[in-house]
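Ticket #4471: complex job returned nothing on first submit. Input attached below:
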Amino acid sequence: DAGVIQSPRHEVTEMGQEVTLRCKPISGHDYLFWYRQTMMRGLELLIYFNNNVPIDDSGMPEDRFSAKMPNASFSTLKIQPSEPRDSAVYFCASSLWRSYEQYFGPGTRLTVT
Amino acid sequence: AQTVTQSQPEMSVQEAETVTLSCTYDTSESDYYLFWYKQPPSRQMILVIRQEAYKQQNATENRFSVNFQKAAKSFSLKISDSQLGDAAMYFCAYRSAGYTGANSKLTFGKGITLSVRP
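Support reply: We reran it on our side without changes. The output follows.
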């Protein structure tokens, strides 16, 4: 299995631009999670989906952030407009119902200048 | 809500020696899972070891073992015969047991950076 795939691996953008991060979960997994990692706040759960349906988006910091999962094999996290404080590493993870383990993607390092 | 605390931001160990990383958590639940994840400079999050709260026996995985003290809500990771490749950030994480959606998420501690001296 290819594991969780995220793209791009690195993204540099200017303040005010729209940013879209992409994730392909492991085939057959029915849970998908988006995390953000910063030095100040550590790893934070932003939102997660079960069977493509958002379950809990209470971690999404602002309305500038949105996430979708149009099908079982693809999810996006969008920031519009982006701000310098959004600079972080964004991870996607997936898991299978009744499994304790989450499998993480390699992360996307976002830099907003 | 559950919280996970890793109070030591950094630790250092001599190669081939043993080091223990500390983690405490707070929960009102009786059944849950605890994990240690490793994040090397590559950024990839790697599961090192897990512990089910209902098991009294401490989990072990090769050179990695845990000391799980349920009453004290303590979950430390011991790395024996430390190797240079063990240098990484280590995160302690909590997950509720059960299979509803709300139980699936992980709560992480802030992490500890481990360096290994040759």
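The first strand of chain B starts at residue 3 and ends at 5. Closing as resolved unless it happens again.
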